[in-house]
Amino acid sequence: MSAQPAVDRDAFAPARESFAALETFLGSKEACSLRESDLERELEKRGRELMRQLLEAHVEVRGPGEAAAPVKGSDGEERVQQRLHERGLETVFGEVRIERAGYLAEGKTGLHPMDADLNLPKELYSHELRRRTAWAAAGNSFDEVIGLLRETTGAEVGKRQVEQLVVRAAEDFDAFYKEGYEFRQPERTGPLMVVTVDGKGVVMRHEDLREATQRKAETTQHKLTGRLSRGEKRNAKRMATVAAVYTIQPYSRRPEDVLGGLAPHHEQEGCRRPRPENKRVWASLEKPPEDVIKEAFREARRRDPEGHKRWIALVDGNETQLDILRKRFHKEGYYPWIILDFIHVAERVWKAGLDFHKEGTAELEAWVSKRLLAILKGRAAPCGCRHPAQRHTAWIRRTSAAAHRLLRGLLAQVQEEYEV
């Protein structure tokens, strides 16, 4: 069922009048006396109103959407009564009024074919305005989102409405991927299937923290009132589990190339690095890590059901996430290569180096560079000793055997320098 086209009418007359008024204003003495920045703001304001009138005129030209056939709902019941209903729609240009035909039946929900033709949301705010709100909220506070919308659109959105729109946008995330979003065929993608899991702390209100974190925040006493001392935590964050799945082409580098890439001013790489293919990234504060990792495994298996690609699990050393990742993969009969993110290894080596050299010195940089290069080349000898310096690498005890042996070798070298 589709809506019938409307009869022709001069719905664009108000927009033409606004454009003529805008053209007259730009040639007036008033406009010529304005600074460019003031003129720019005024032109944007008037232009936005012109766009609103054009949009409203277009909707009017399409007519009220009278159906060409009997209107039946999903319940199979026919709506026989027809009435004209008017509704508002808050758009990025401002509010427009839409008059459309409604079809009613006693005890049944009314249907509006025009709403389906225009794909209108049930609430006041347009889909484009909702998209911009969700995009802005991803990196700003709700108050900042309100200010951003006020400055860049003609819409009026309150704080409560912004919060509700963001929540509704997030509700569609899982449903979108359950529909089976199609990517490129497996044979047209790289031979490496990468699954990576990480954690991200998000500052929360006290009442939204997990129970254990709330108890720590209530019982912890800080040394200073104005700032945190070294090693102290505010206990104001909730950990989100972040996961990503993608395929990629192999890319070979020498250990020196990897180490050189960590420097602030390194030379540009000779060949172009391959980019991840069909990358999906998502995170959850609400779901436990087990559910996020399970979903990451399902996504990878959906892309490579026959297991033809080499699976790689990229981790940062979080023991809880690593245990969950291993159990999930091994349960399904998958044994991926587990790779420790080298950035996290380098970070711990830098901390170990502070036991021997002062921060910001060339001696510290040389000490760290030497040991990182040894790790990348696999030349660090294994050692079963225990030493205080192990506090810097205790987090790695349960990662892959290869990374474990390399770091144990590093600890052996650290012990020798302590003894010297």
Which descriptors would you attach to this protein?
420 residues; two-stranded antiparallel sheet; 14 helices; disordered N terminus; alpha/beta
Strands ordered across the widest β-sheet: 7-6-5-8-9
- Residues in helix, %: 40-55%
Mean pLDDT value: 79
How many individual helices? 14
Give the strand content.
15-25%
Radius of gyration: 30 Å
What is the count of β-strands? 9
Order of helices and strands: HHHEEEEHHHHEHEHEHEHEHHH
How can the largest sheet be summarized?
5 strands, mixed
**Outline type:** extended
Low-confidence stretches: 1-7, 381-402
Based on secondary structure, the structural category is alpha/beta
- End-to-end CA span: 86 Å
Could you walk me through the main structural features you see in this protein, from its secondary elements to its overall organization?
This protein is α/β, with parallel strands linked by helices and 420 residues long. It has a domain at 186-223 and 233-419. 43% of the residues lie in helices and 16% in strands. It has 14 helices and 9 strands. It has helices at 13-26, 29-32, 36-61, 113-118, 127-137, 142-152, 159-178, 211-219, 255-260, 289-303, 319-331, 342-353, 362-377, 401-419; strands spanning 71-72, 78-79, 81-91, 94-104, 192-203, 237-248, 277-284, 310-315, 337-340. The strands form 3 sheets. Strands 7-6-5-8-9 form a 5-stranded mixed sheet. A two-stranded antiparallel sheet has the order 1-2. It has a two-stranded antiparallel sheet with strand order 3-4. Strand 3 (81-91) and strand 4 form a beta hairpin. Helix 1 runs antiparallel to helix 3 and helix 5 packs across helix 6. The chain is extended. The N and C termini lie far apart (86 Å).
